[in-house]
Amino acid sequence: MWGLPRLRDLPWRQTREPWAILVAEVMLQQTQVARVIPRWRAFLERFPTPPRCADADLADVLREWHGLGYPRRARNLHLAAARVTEVHGGHLPDDLGALLALPGIGPYTARAVLAFAFERDVAVVDTNIARVLARTTGERLTPKRVQATADSLVPLRQGWAWNQALMDLGATVCRPVPRCDECPVARSCHWHVAGRPAPDPADGSAGVSARQAPFEGSARQARGRVMARLQSGPAPVDELDPAALASLVADGLVSVTAGSADLALS
Questions:
Q1: Close Cβ partners of 76 (under 8 Å, ≥ 6 residues apart)
Q2: CATH pick for 17-116 out of 1.20.120.790, 3.30.70.2860, 1.20.58.760, 1.10.340.30
């Protein structure tokens, strides 16, 4: 397989432990690989199993997560750990329906755990894979079509390797600005063979990330500032951005008592 000798050396590819895979997949959502690697190791050192994570206060999980952004992911991971502990004896289930029933776990993450931890022959569709499939088929794909296309391609007993290789093909070669001269499937890629006409079929296809709005001045930045302020302990409410604070309270990430805000406990 073209991709195996070229796979990026990522630490979560050296394990098949389901909890470690889940933590990596949740961290990698909208966060660059280079930032995730040291934080993944640190998080697993502190919370090596679902029961250890579930037993911790949410505030401690949020502090360990700080700097990765999108703290709702940490809260959902904490909730998922609690459900795994209560319902599945502390071990992640190897069933798609049971994984999808965990808080914050969507189709991609559930399938990623099945493929990368349990080595099942299921297809995962992240933004890189969706971009590859849209271009090779030459079509703007709907969610149903992109998943069906991915499902049809997984070779028997090669689910782990196939998905990892296809993911890296999109991450390193079939990028938003593609490197078609390096691509092993260029000759069979409908978009490339057609001369790469506009519009790019990846644009608007299901699963392909759109450009994010600027961070500077955004609500995300304001929320991040509040979370950063609370890392060291409680703060008076009147020192914090009111809209950001209200949204964090609504998400269950911050609690307010007697005019003081702090990271939420479990």
A1: 26, 103, 104, 105
A2: 1.10.340.30
- pTM for the full predicted model: 0.94
**What is the full per-residue pLDDT of the chain (266 aa) written as tens digits?**
577 788 999 999 999 999 999 999 999 998 999 999 999 999 999 999 999 999 999 999 999 999 999 999 999 999 999 999 999 999 999 999 999 999 999 999 999 999 999 999 999 999 999 999 999 999 999 999 999 999 999 999 999 999 999 999 999 999 999 999 999 999 999 999 999 999 999 999 988 976 666 778 789 999 999 999 999 999 999 999 999 999 999 999 999 999 999 999 98
Catalytic residue among 17, 25, 64, 182: 25
Neighbours of 139 (CB within 10 A): 16
CATH of 127-193, one of 1.10.510.10, 3.90.580.10, 3.40.50.10320, 1.10.1670.10: 1.10.1670.10
Note if 25 is an active site residue.
yes
CB atoms within 10 A of CB 5: 7
In 118-259, the DSSP E strands lie at: 235-236, 254-257
